[in-house]
Structure formats: C-alpha cells, structure tokens
Amino acid sequence: MKNSILNVEVSCFKNYFESNNPITINLLDWLNSNKYKNTVEKIRSISDKTERDKIKATLPAITPSGIFSSRNDNNLIKHSGFLQFDIDYKDNRHIGNYNELKTQICKIKNVAYCGMSVSGTGYWGLIPIAYPNKHKQQFEALKADFKSIGINIDCSCSNLSRLRGYSYDNNAYFNHKALVYYNIIEFNKEQPKHNQIFNSDNFSIQGKVEECLNKILNSKIDITGNYQQWFSLGCSLANEFGEAGRTYYHTISQFYCKYKYEDTNKQFTECLKHSYRYTIATFFEYCKNYNIEFKQYKAVIMPIQATNNNITIPKKQPNNNPFRPTNINNIEQTIVEHYLSYRMPYNVDVESEINSLVSGLLNETNIKVEPNIYRDIINKYEMPKYNKITDINSNSIFKSPYYNDRWYTFNKKDKISKWNIEEIELFFQKAKLPPNPIKLNDFEIIVDVKKFIESSLATCKANNGNETFLPYWESLLEFQKYLIN
C-alpha cells in the first residue's frame, strides 16, 4: 500500500550476529513476508531454549527505527519515524489474560503494527513518532504510557539500532493510518560523560568486565533497564571490585536517559554499605541479554599489563560476601532471602535475577541441580494474584506521559517530608513479631520478619525522604498496620 504509514525503508542484516553490510528493504514488505515462516514454526515447536535461540540467531533481522551503515546508534543514515516496542511474557506475569493482550494493544490508535515474536510467547509492535531526533525521550514517554495501563515493555528498545529478528504472525495487526505519537519526556540537565576506554587483559574477571564496558561505550547501549536491574548491577560491581567499581557503574549508567551523576554515586555507595548477595555473574548475565559478551579464550595466559599511563586500572578488592553455599539447602535459603528482598510481585526482575544468582552460586560450588530450580522453591510460597487488562477501549490514544503515579512524574518541585523512622523503629522493638512467614498483601510475602524489618529500616535510614525508596517505607507502614490489627 503506497499510502501506508509503514511504507518506509529500513536496514536488514543477514543474521543476529552480523553488524555490517546491511541492505535496505521496505518495512511493509518485510512485515508481510512469509519467506521464513517454516523456520519460525520450527522454532516455536522446540522446547529447549538453547536450541531455539541457536536457530533464531540465523534468521535475518532489521533495524525498525531506520537505515544504518552498520549496526550502531552513531551510524544512523535516516530515521524511519518508528519506535518499536517489545512485550515479553516474563516481564508481564502479573497479567492474567496475557494471551489476549494483542487484542487489547491493537485498540490503541497509535499502534501501526502488532504481531507475535519469533518465540510465539511475546508481542512486538511499531508506533510512529513525531520527533525522530528525540528517539530515546519519546521511548521513555511510551514506556510510561504502557506502564500506566499495566504493561511492561522491554527497555532495550530505547536503543536506536535495536534489532528485530524476523517473525511470522498470520493474524498480525496492521493500522496503515496510525496516529503519530507526540509524547516526550525531556531531561535537560547535562551529566558528566564517562568515555574512558579500558585497556586491561581479557583473561581475568576484570579484563572480561572491561571488554564488556568497551562494547557498551562503543554501542552506547543502556543495559541498566529498570531500577531493580540498575540496583543489582551496582551490587554486582561493588561486591566484585569494591570502591574501584564506581567508575564502572557510572560507565554503564550514563546511557540511561534519566542518568544523574549524584544519584548514581549515592546508589553505588549504598551497594557498598550493605553487601547484598550479588556476584559478578549478574553483570555478565545482563550484558548477555543485550548481546554484550567477552571473547572466550582456551589458553590460560598471564595477564598483560596496560601500558597507557593515562589509564588507572583499579585493583580488584576482596569480596566480603561471607556466603559460600555448600549444598542445595544453602542455595534454597539464599533464594528465599533474595526473593524477600524485592518485596514486589514475582515478575521478570525477580525471576531473571534469581536465575542469575543460582547460576553464579552453582558455578562456584559445582553443585548439580535441575534447571530453573527457583521455580520449585518460590512455588512453595503463596504467589500474588494476577490482574487482567481489559479496560482499553477501541478509541484509546496515548495523550500525555505525565501520570499521578510517582514513578512517572518528573521535574517534581515539592520535596517529600522526612519519614519518622525513630518512631516506627521503636514500635517494632516493642512489638511481638510473628515467628512464621506472613502474607502482607496480595503482592508481598514476608518470609523472615526480623530480616525484613532490619533491611527495610537500614534502607530507609540511608535514604530518608528519597522518593525512589518510598516503597521500602510504605512496606514498613503496612506491616506496622498489620501487627496493630
């Protein structure tokens, strides 16, 4: 269709691994193509994820947001005028009618295309935008708009050169006259840039981390995702490198559109103080999710010292984490405590982080267990109820990125008053605490009451009045109310 809003050109790469030599193709033709239909159906019939991913990576892929000379944000030739969004089941386990989600999404007048992902378990789509030169700012507004209706979209789609592999959906939705999306979240304050190129060996843990950091610097990819992902990355670097990891943390944080030097510094300091149980495996796992990986070497070679005197390579600090699992019971205990620390619905953040944690622990101990052990362990505890998304009407339009929800209200001038921590701490000291796990609400289960109080109080004391940490304070107030009643 010549008059279709989707009748634009984009770049196409040979497969997921190819970053050079793209060809220019028509987006609408690509979306209608069934050339690799049989391969997609084969992928969806395979239960083993490793095997699925292996075949999926051989499929061609496009950059829906434009034409590129190579797959890098800096090498954009022409923007297509589209943002892509990606909705994964693992990010939206709280949605009870997930299988009906595409029907709901297609009611939004800004959506030009929506179809199944190559795995068949997710949805992806395209939305035309008004300001291609402010791609990331418009994506942040879009993410907030989806969040307002209860849907979590993949943060990595904010990257301009983000790939979209071939998929097939015989019931794909097309809206050739989709409304242009105007919402935008501006971040005007200029932040310090961290452009240091690291020059270390590729054989030590530090060398592998720095190789990943160099790739992040070159591609300008934001791997920090949401708050919990950013937090766990900070803890991972703090536990591995101590104070020396602070520069690394700024390096990965700077590509987030709301990056603030002071906030990042403060967050890393908190990670150092509390010794949360994250290993460097967490960092590598998140890098892998964004196709950032270090090279594997078979030979064991002594580290090569950096010769550039202008670069100071931080020495690895001792890991003060006293926990070293020796058997499966230790791992189960850690998983339960880890799950408790989130105090939120069991969603993608919890699941992916626990999976990463387990992988790291098993690598350290060589304990053999069944895959996805966290599922069986977490299922021992009552899980939150799922909500359904059914209230999207057929004339829905994303109108404004600003909501009453505190998470999406920016440039707020009113300061939050300090929390009365001394009073609630005194209350818990005198209160009779339940010895068994309790269900605080539909979304929170407290397994170890004493540890819940200690960790929440410590966080609130360190961040008194900070809106980012308000959920910790609210959980304490709700638990106080629970005990009184």
Strand arrangement, major sheet: 2-1-3-9
Give the percentage of residues in beta strands: 5-15%
| Classification by helices and strands | alpha+beta
Number of strands: 12
Order of helices and strands: EEHHHEEEEHEEHEEHHHHHHHHHEEHH
Q: Please give the domain count.
A: 3
End-to-end distance: 64 Å
Could you give a short account of the major beta sheet? 4 strands, antiparallel
Residue share in helix: 25-40%
Shape: globular
Radius of gyration: 23 Å
The whole-number mean of residue pLDDT values reads: 75
Which consecutive residue ranges, at least 5 long each, have pLDDT under 50?
A: 297-326, 338-350, 380-386, 399-416
Helical stretch tally: 16
In brief:
This protein is α+β, with helices and mostly antiparallel strands and 485 residues long. The protein contains 16 helices and twelve strands. It has helices spanning 27-32, 37-45, 49-56, 101-105, 135-148, 205-219, 227-241, 246-253, 261-274, 280-289, 328-342, 348-365, 373-378, 421-430, 449-462, 470-484, and strands spanning 9-13, 23-26, 61-63, 66-68, 76-79, 82-87, 113-116, 123-128, 164-165, 173-174, 438-441, 444-446.
How would you describe the overall organization of this protein?
- The protein has 16 helices and twelve strands.
- By secondary structure, it is an alpha+beta fold.
- The chain has three domains: 9-174, no CATH class; 205-378, no CATH class; 416-484, no CATH class.
- The protein is globular.
- Mean pLDDT is 75; it is low at 297-326, 338-350, 380-386 and 399-416.
